[in-house]
Amino acid sequence: MKIFIFIFLLCCSNANGQALVNIQLYLDNQQVSTAAKDFYNKKFKAKDDEKTLSIIDSLFTKNNSTRPFYIYLVSKMAFSSDGALSEAIGYSGNEFFQKKPNDLIAFLYSGNPIIDKSFLTNWAKIIAGEIAINCEGKEKNCLNTMKQSIQPLIKETNKQHFLAFYRLLENSFH
After folding, report:
1. 66 CB-near residues (< 8 Å, 6+ apart)
2. CA-CA distance, 92 to 6, in Å (whole number)?
3. Nearest 5°: CA angle at 65, between 64 and 68?
4. 76: pLDDT strictly greater than 80
5. Residue span of the signal peptide, if any (predicted)?
6. pLDDT band at residue 18, thresholds of 50, 70 and 90?
7. Rounded CA gap, 168 and 172, in Å?
8. Cα(153)–Cα(151) distance, rounded to whole angstroms?
9. 46-75 b/e with 16+ CB inside 10 Å = b?
10. What is the pTM of this model?
11. Domain positions in the chain
């Protein structure tokens, strides 16, 4: 089992760690938080509390091999969030996209069957919602500024998907 986990971690580090792999590997990984495992196993519902917010904060983990699991969990949370939890997901989700756009794009467009098709539109709504809050009346200008700041960070392999995602964001403001 240790050899399997080592090979998994090695593959993730070579692939920039953004491909979601077998969920059981995350559940067996000691570097994944207990809160994340408990949420996945439906031991608690996402709400505006310390456990849930710790999972959202883990989007920014330095561990490339576990980050896809946290993206997955936050994507699941976005389905049923409201109030303060929606605000936390919106703020952190927007910041995550701006700081680690390749990670989100690679995750959303990975083609992995476990990634629900609605994750893509939900993430677009999360980010568009933050733009609407922060740039009321100037959403298109802010979106264009965001594109200009993020586009140089996008890896060649993600460029087409980034542009497709950007179009989803643009469509939010028509």
Report:
1. 17, 26, 29, 31, 32, 58
2. 30
3. 85
4. yes
5. 1-17
6. low
7. 7
8. 5
9. beeeebbbebbebbebebbbbbbbbbbbbb
10. 0.88
11. 2-171
